[in-house]
Amino acid sequence: MRKITQSRKLAGVRYDVRGPILQEAERLEREGHQILKLNIGNPAPFGFEAPPEILEELRRVLPEAQGYTDSRGILPAREAVSRYYAAEGIAGIGPDDVFLGNGVSELISLVLQALVDVGDEILVPSPDYPLWTAQVTLSGGSAVHYPCDESNGWMPDLEAIERLITPATKGIVLINPNNPTGGVYSAELVRGFAALAERHGIVLMADEIYERILFDDAVHEHAAAHVNETLCLTFSGLSKAQRVAGYRSGWVAVSGDRSRAHDFLEGLTLLANMRMCANAPAQHAIPIALDPASNWSGIAELCAPGGRLREQRDVAHRLLTEIPGVSCVMPGGAMYLFPRLDPERFPIEDDQAFVIDLLRATRVLVTNGRGFNLATPDHLRFVTLPSVPVLTEAIGRIAEYLDRVRVA
Ligand code: PLP
Fold first, then answer.
1. CB-count burial class (<10 Å; 0-12, 13-18, 19+) for 52
2. Mean pLDDT of the chain
3. Most CB atoms closer than 10 Å: which of 24, 133, 137, 302?
4. What's the whole-model pTM score?
5. Closest approach atom of ligand 1 to CA 175
6. Domains annotated on the chain, with CATH
7. How far is the CA of 358 from the centre of ligand 1 (A)?
């Protein structure tokens, strides 16, 4: 009988964050080992409680949120998103410009399926949150990676990006603050992205899911504030700042010049219709989360001096950079560290195999840098969500392991 094979569309599609490394961790857990997991940016298991006002609203709304909703999402939530951007100084995003989804993940898929044809190119940062590259590939397009410069705080170079633009380029992805690097882009850089997209008439896709997770004096600049002459799509949601990743609640807001984009927007609406709607109860959390009275669910306090996220970032960064041969750009935002292992001292060829060996030896789970479409096998990604004692234990074990495998 014929083999049941996966579709050819999946050739080249990778998502290592939940790939073979996680499978190995699960196998070790089944054998009875306890694994310290520093691999997924999922706040709830690390003791970050959902904001009480969101929990309360979900409990209240459950009986009345049983049916499908409008495919774009319930009007009060889309109005709340529209009001939010207006308050942030971005005019012209009405409720009908907003699509709610089962997390930003679903919306990335819908947008790229609606936008990308075989042969189209989308500029994606390297390193990136790998869903972007995976979904561009699944859509039949090519992800063309633009480098972010570690020696310059992981900032992208706009001139280098411009050189990658070809007649096949249809869009550019900006992840700010960035996962995995934690880079937060200056207003000047964000304006530069907007101007570049406008000059070439390509779609600017701004993934701003970490917009409220900022440290020190970092300030987040919305890309949409600077895009007038081409289409801008802004993605955000409740998974990170509100810490309710499991509710699957996010949005994409359409702004800028829609005059050339009717066809694409019709396609996006068709795909949104085909999946009925986003999880209805979680849509009701959006107006609560975006109500100025909710104070963004206390995220600023968690990121301020003395706040849990800030302290964990600082401790993990200090412990990692104390390890000989390890360096790490201090992240200005998000919930990750992306340290570099000096290739002279750690001559790693296959970073996935390295991370699996590390896991077997230390019972600590991290993700390899190439899983984020980095070109070189010399980085690891750490999630800074665990408590200080857990981070200290995990990084201590890693430091011992690195002492054993270091060559010089
Ligand atoms: N975009 C980035 C940059 C992320 O890091 C993540 C999750 O880690 C997502 C999007 C997906 O978020 P959601 O839970 O809204 O699907």
1. exposed
2. 96
3. 133
4. 0.97
5. 3
6. 8-48+301-405 (3.90.1150.10), 64-294 (3.40.640.10)
7. 26
